[in-house]
Amino acid sequence: MPYSIAAAVHSELLIKKSRFIACVQPMTDRSAAQKVVAELWAQHPGAAHVCWALLAGGQSAAVDDGEPSGTAGRPMLDVLRHQDLEGVLATVVRYFGGVKLGAGGLVRAYTDSVAQALLKSEKIAIIKLHYLTCTAPYAMEGMVRREIEMAGAHLDNVTHSDEVRFEFSLADSAAAQLISRLNEAGHGRIQWIAPDDE
């Protein structure tokens, strides 16, 4: 199950006189991530690098920002992937301390910076929702409402006309079981409306 994080979390490491200021935060797309990076440059004009990694589906990115290729952005992205995260931006502002760390040292520094910030973060599960619409005879309204409630679904809308129409959402993983239970309890009298039929 993929996770995101509840709020922005910061951490700081000092490695051979270089300062690594890391932040992990929820982020949905690349343009929003680039705004955050621009703000970091404004806040840290004396920084040597602002490296970042975004894990957000097709919007993902890994940016070394002048560090040797593959020593910052990609290792940061790998940390996010290993934690099964989605919709998360990791940034690391580096102030150079005068001592070169080498490629291996840089990979470790950027990896550790992001990992330290993630240790303090609160992970939240990303639950994919399934939206369903069905109609039932008036005599079955109570039964349908009970089944929806017992399944932990959220009843979004109920309308009454010739029949009772229910619009509700629930965790993707629970949808098939609820449909099956309602079909069985409704003896074929519950009609399902596909989203494109409306």
Automatic annotation (TrEMBL):
Organism superkingdom: Bacteria
Domain UPF0029 as annotated: residue spans: 134-189
Listed Gene3D superfamilies: Impact, N-terminal domain
BP GO annotations: regulation of translational initiation
GO molecular function: guanyl ribonucleotide binding; ribonucleoside triphosphate phosphatase activity
CC terms in the record's Gene Ontology section: cytoplasm
Domain Impact N-terminal: 16-118
Pfam families in alphabetical order: DUF1949 (PF09186), Impact_N (PF01205)
InterPro entries registered for this protein in UniProt: EFG_III/V, Impact, Impact_N, Impact_N_sf, Ribosomal_Su5_D2-typ_SF, UPF0029_Impact_C
Family: Belongs to the IMPACT family.
Full protein name: DUF1949 domain-containing protein
Organism of origin: Rugamonas aquatica
